[in-house]
Write a structure and sequence with these properties.
heterodimer; A: 308 residues; alpha/beta; Rossmann fold; Alpha-Beta Plaits; 2 domains; six-stranded mixed β-sheet; four-stranded antiparallel β-sheet; 11 helices; 37% helix; globular; B: 246 residues; mainly alpha
Amino acid sequence: MPMLAIDHVTKTYRGGVLANDDITLDAAAGEVFGLLGPNGAGKTTLVSQVLALLMPDSGTITIDGIDVVRRADEARRLCSFQPQAAAPVEGLTARQAVEIVGCVRGGRRDAVRRRAAELLDALDLGEVADRTVRMSGGMARLTGFCMAAVVPGRVVVLDEPTNDVDPMRRRALWQQIRRLADDGAAVLLVTHNVLEAERCVDRLAIVAGGRVRAIGAPGTLKAELAAPLRLECTLDPDRPAPDLPASATLMATTGRRLLAQVQLADVGHAVTWAQRAQDLGVITEFSVAAASLEDVYANWVQAEVASA
Amino acid sequence: MSGQGWCACVLLFRWQMLRNRQLFVLLVTIQIALGVGVIYGFSYLVPHVDAEVALFFATGAPTLTLILMGLTLVPQETALARVNGRYDYVSALPVPRLAPMVADVSYWLLVQLPGTLVTLLLAAWRFHLHFHVDGLVIPAIVLVSLTAAAVGYGVALTFPPTATTQVTQFLSIALLLFSPIEFPLSRLPEWLQDVHRVLPVTYMADVIRGGLTGHYGVSKSLAFAVLGAYCVAGLALSARAANRRG
């Protein structure tokens, strides 16, 4: 039985906004499950229902077999979380915030103290551990993670845990997230950071327009792509974007970045085109690489935008 | 509430204390100043303060601050917590639904305690009053604060955060001007007296006054029974509002 099971959940807000439309997914103990999607996709609404803060219109959510809707108190004991907004740490030192939440979650005082020290040390939070300073966004977010991890639930929900976090601490954070799963929790990870998620998640769901568009392991999803290669170009901002050759399929243009899919047989043609475009100064650089999870994500989100 | 529930209340209270420790002295000072203001300010409104009026001023001041704490400070704090995400964060923790309110009330009672003591001492000195403190003053304080806070908490969870301040200010003004806290019930028009015989405010003022002087306006047991019923009903409604999920 999965540790977290979300079964045909639909949620409509007052005013008729359909936030979640028949969502079904599950996460097993020991698994990091990624929830990816653009802003307004319905991810935070889904998380709020897992935390028993919102009630689904239909469908069920269970944590270790416990119905979240009917037994909300029990479900809250089984689930710890880091909110998308900064955790409420104002006026407290990081250590105080982490220890209080650990004790509220039922941890024994000495065990909580040890675990808090371990987490603060692992994430290099020494400078705010015992000082009531106004924390930077990244420090507050890392403290929020420690508050979720000090006495972790059987399900740990992390909503955008790496936002504002510097690269070195981010690496340490991913290690701690992995460790939570290795210690037996099912980790539900909500993120926009597709490239990082690709390295950390075991399975993921891409949510767009309130619906699950794709679900599976990163490798499986990449294998389902129409083309195995990606052509990425950096555009010259002062020149109009070039027309792609017929052998490449445009996936996304964001700012100066152009992303296209290329079939293996067409790679030579695509590279020749890109080299010429670079010689003409229309693009400043390009690369061809194996398709990534970002291509899967762009594929589905672009399909959603096109159908909207 | 279970043992774990009370433990959660204590931890949330500690959280509240730590969050506001830098403001604690300032808030206590403001409460003392308010108490002093009530004793001196109301005497300007009523130039000839006789023994009865003085007693109402002296015992009405702590009642008023307790009720205003529940009806303004607690809901405004809750509305702010709803806006900045703290309310949702605490709601997702395994704590009883009313634990944040109990922690808030405990914190604000601690803030108000020095002000209340100073107010009573000042009133005793200025108006030559002699208090006969009854042991029932403690349950009276708890009942008054919890009842008012239950209403305030319910308001904060029912109305949008932006409207909470307006609603609580309206309640405060109504309470200050049209409730028999700082003056006897008999001064109000008869229809308003009838309304106040049903509402809890008269009984709130009465149990505090009785606890401080030993003299109750109505039957002691009736006052506590009515207030107890309001308290239970208020807490039940607040718990319902806190349990409501959108």
